[in-house]
Amino acid sequence: MPIIGLDEADATCGGKALGLGLLSRSGFNVPNGFVVVGDLDALALGAAVDRLGAPMAVRSSGLLEDSATASFAGQLQTVLGVVGSAEAAAAILACGRSGTADRVRAYAVRTGAATPPRVPVVVQRLVAAEVAGVVFTQDPRTGLDDVVIEAAWGLGGSVVDGQVVPDRFTVSALGTVEGSVGSKATRLDWRDGELIRSAVPTQERRRAALTHAQIREIAGTAREAHGALGYPLDIEWAISGDTLWLLQARPITTASSPPGSPAARPASIVLVSGVGCSPGRVNGVARVVHGLDEFTRVRPGDVLVCRTTDPAWTPLFSVVSAVVTESGGLLSHAAIVAREAGVPAVVVAGGAMRRIVDGSHIAVDGTQGTVSARP
């Protein structure tokens, strides 16, 4: 089992490891780790785990994952809070074999990418973050070089998996900061030796998760990483204490409507508004879905309406004409996959599952962020 230090990772270690290796060699704060390529060797793994320490984050690093043409965002396996060599071995096997999952096959078919075989795996120290999230060095809505940051309390899984409505800040090329505070109703933390999801107190939900100085630090660091790697980046980050860590970095794969594109024609009655996260406008039949057991109700061309999505919902993105969620963010995995698939999407559409009637005819505007009734 070849074990390669993360700071030495190259293209043979897969897209995620390569990005982290480039950042590490460029002097950015990247959590210590290593890459497993090939079959497991228990003794070598045990020694590497002992050197690294716990807790650990174990993530896939497919050869096509996090590439310029296919992100595989959220499709392959990640295991957080791993402790000890036995748990590490199980997590590595799960991540390495996750390319065979149905959702990965569906994603590969839709994007024209090859289904990944057994993939390399990245093992890193888990950053016990007080606040974390995602930053894009290019606005996916406009294609402009504005930095867009989404943040929430605790570990970044709440943001990337669309579990919360995050804070969002945009930093222009001139340094102007605009933003909005999301609800951030829950948080995920490593505490007392386990991962714990808990409710966020009301006063903390209303408070911005980042200070003005932290916003500028994240934006500045993201721009420096963009310059070092030479292309627009989608970066997962975390802050622990006074340190900003870069956890993942991939090319931004989704094209945006060029600046100045005409606004979509408004429909008759707006049922719900949110954040347009994947451009385009379509008409379709609303299909309000509460869970995986209702997938069979979805027909080609339907508009998926749900609270949130996770990677298990990916096969529906090749069936539906649009997606509307009550939670999530502009930079979440689901939003990335929707943009890659060219499926109009609206997130943070509060009350969508209540206000949109299952089976009704609606119009979704993924540019303007509206869902309207149709005759």
How would you characterize the overall build of this protein?
The protein has 375 residues and is an alpha+beta fold. 23% of the residues lie in helices and 29% in strands. It has nine helices and 21 strands. The strands form four sheets. The protein has an eight-stranded mixed sheet. The chain has a six-stranded antiparallel sheet with strand order 9-8-7-6-12-13. The radius of gyration is 20 Å and the shape is globular. Residues 257-267 have low confidence and may be disordered.
Identify the strand order in the major beta sheet: 14-21-20-16-17-18-19-15
Assembly state here?
single chain
Order of helices and strands: EHEHEEHHEEEHEEEEHHEEEEEEEHEHEE
Class from helix and strand fractions: alpha+beta
Helix content: 10-25%
List keywords for this structure.
globular; single chain; 375 residues; six-stranded antiparallel β-sheet; 21 strands; eight-stranded mixed β-sheet
Chain-wise SSE layout:
Elements: E1 3-5, H1 15-25, E2 33-36, H2 42-52, E3 56-60, E4 78-82, H3 84-96, H4 102-111, E5 121-125, E6 131-136, E7 147-153, H5 157-160, E8 167-171, E9 177-180, E10 186-191, E11 194-199, H6 202-206, H7 212-229, E12 233-240, E13 243-251, E14 269-273, E15 275-278, E16 281-288, E17 303-306, E18 322-325, H8 333-341, E19 345-347, H9 352-355, E20 361-365, E21 370-373
Parallel strand pairs: 16-17, 17-18, 18-19
Antiparallel strand pairs: 1-2, 2-5, 3-4, 3-5, 6-7, 6-12, 7-8, 8-9, 10-11, 12-13, 14-21, 15-19, 16-20, 20-21
Helix pairs in contact: 2-3
